[in-house]
């Protein structure tokens, strides 16, 4: 269902891909310039792998939906969530399934153009063996779920708060900085790196990018995916508990 | 004159009052907008935690560049940023109401909203500007002071014109609103970094097509007396108002063409 809903708007997808590509162009330039200024390597990134990071991030930003969504919060506010509660399916898994459908659709139309542009403009440093891609795909899927589980929690705040803009903005800022969206987590100064390591955000973006580009390989890659799964499990579980708490509090007027 | 602008003043006044009515919500929004500015600055901060000089600029100079670009963008965003809601107006047919009134549509659209909360980002950029002006070694002649003021005003005008260009394109694209984001938000992003790090085609794009380099980088070259990269001599920094006039001419032409293309929502 999620897949069909999002595949209807082709022009919107093309426009999004174009914007991702332009941002990729700027981001790759900045990353490469910074690596050049650092003398050719910066925290293990060469010019080519730095540019690849920038393009990969732009390719994944739409499938991962890091900028978030708020329809659940809106439905809680209006009381429509009562419908979801009355259905014989688990609301969290129903939402997650729709989100996976959305991600599956956006992977190619939103992901391919930035990568193609990257290959043409700066060249991409990608691994040659198939293993990183297989593990990478898994890592992306888990990343989509972690990102979903995080936003699910933010949306649930609507059970307790009337105006969600404040918490949403705060979460978005934290997410964009700490996930590695604006800059690789590996470049962080120590204090910020520690903060990122103790948050779920790197599991959303930096981890999949690291796995696909084979920055982490073999056992380390498995470990990265393991950390992602741990965060996913923890976030989904707290999401379930919080949803149940919130639903108990909810009073929907009228019938 | 007073009589002619009265309608606009009433409109803007009502929008301002409505935003200030819920004080705590407004304070949250201001903080949120400041936080987004902080997020953008985090990128500059992390980069300079790793290196000392990027594209001939040190951290102090890069902070000055960042501040100028952000003040211009956030002011433009406050005053005119809501024109990127045009696709919503088009789809809902709200624009038809504007067409019925005896006032220019663009002026009505601009004055239909003012997003005061975006001033949070301006405030943050302003604070960074003050600190970075103190950190940099600038020769404070009258001309340089004037240039700083001109840069802020023209920078705002340039970003505002980019928003209008982006809105004009929506008359054709409706669902493709994000195309335009590449140039408004993309331009703002590119403006925060020294144009010298871009390849020559990109430098040309972000200077002469989307004139975002004029909003901050070129004036900073003059203020710090730095030589520009190939194709961008320092004296271009004085031409910022010209760039603003040029892009506004394009924006208004595009807007007029778009409005003529518009055939109504059938309401």
From TrEMBL, chain A:
Q: Where are the transmembrane segments?
A: 111-128, 134-162, 169-188, 225-243
Could you list this entry's UniProt keywords, alphabetically sorted: Membrane, Transmembrane, Transmembrane helix
Name of one Pfam family that matches: ABC2_membrane_6
Under the heading InterPro entries, the entry gives:
ABC-2_transporter-like
Q: Which PANTHER family match?
A: INTEGRAL MEMBRANE PROTEIN, SLR1174 PROTEIN-RELATED
Name of the protein in question: ABC-2 type transport system permease protein
Which species expresses this protein natively? Haloactinopolyspora alba
Upper lineage: Bacteria, Bacillati, Actinomycetota, Actinomycetes, Jiangellales
From TrEMBL, chain B:
Q: Which UniProt keywords apply?
A: Membrane, Transmembrane, Transmembrane helix
Q: Does the keyword GTP-binding apply?
A: no
Whether Membrane counts among this entry's keywords is yes
InterPro entries per the UniProt record, alphabetical: ABC-2_transporter-like
Residues crossing the lipid bilayer are 26-48, 60-83, 142-169, 204-223, 235-255
Protein name, please? ABC-2 type transport system permease protein
